[in-house]
Write a structure and sequence with these properties.
220 residues, alpha/beta, Rossmann fold, 2 domains, six-stranded parallel β-sheet, 9 helices, 6 strands, globular, phosphoglycolate phosphatase activity, HAD_2, hydrolase, HAD family hydrolase, HAD-SF_hydro_IA
Length: 220
């Protein structure tokens, strides 16, 4: 089976429009409840953790926090994200839906592999009306994986994917694609915030500056 596996945040969905306020509300709650006394992270610090697993996120933003505090942070974060999605917050990148539909019509199987939790990932896709385009959705929260490499491996095995592409914006996406024998397309969209280090996509097979540019690489 030929397929394309997509990351969600920073690849299809403009994460910062939901995640930044949700993180800010989470830290405000934790401080009010006396569960966290350190400084609240800056917007730049929050954006630096997009695409990481939840364990990695809290290790970076709340180093030394106890497991109960991290679990409470996870709960509040998801609650705030879902509230914002219900309010219509967050946007897809330009021409995401149109491009995905062209790929689907051309016979490509479309999948999601995200380090996020299932309710958030599905909520984001549902809120933008594109969840029906994907054959299946794999999240680190649902499969309890510690890395994107493992998550993509599970996706490939379960779906019987024999060839295709991994599309994402972080080094974890590049690594997951390369270690699972997929062609890697790195996303660095012109005119939009870029997360992580400048060299995160250095070893991607291709780099695109707009989502629609997938159609110049993938045959339809």
């Amino acid at each position: 089976m030929k397929a394309i596996i997509f990351d969600l945040d920073g690849t299809l969905f403009q994460t910062e429009k939901v995640a930044v306020p949700a993180f800010q509300e989470t830290f405000r709650y934790l401080k009010e409840k006396g569960r966290y006394s350190g400084p609240a992270p800056s917007v730049m610090e929050i954006q630096s953790v997009f695409g990481l697993t939840h364990d990695e996120i809290w290790q970076k933003l709340m180093p030394g926090a106890d497991p109960l505090t991290k679990a409470e942070a996870d709960r509040i974060m998801l609650e705030k994200e879902l509230e914002l999605l219900e309010q219509g917050k967050g946007e897809l990148f330009p021409e995401v839906e149109e491009t995905l539909r062209k790929l689907q019509r051309a016979g490509w199987g479309l999948f999601i592999a995200s380090n996020g939790v299932g309710p958030y990932v599905r909520g984001a896709l549902e809120s933008k009306g594109i969840i029906d385009l994907f054959q299946d959705i794999y999240t680190a929260g649902d499969h309890e994986t510690k890395s994107k490499v493992d998550l993509v491996r599970i996706c490939k095995q379960n779906a019987g994917i024999t060839e295709g592409y991994m599309v994402g914006d972080r080094s974890s996406d590049v690594k997951a694609g390369r270690e699972n024998n997929l062609t890697v397309i790195g996303c660095r969209y012109a005119g939009f915030p870029r997360f992580g280090e400048e060299d995160e996509l250095a070893v991607a097979d291709y780099k695109i500056e707009a989502f629609k540019d997938l159609l110049t690489i993938i045959s339809v």
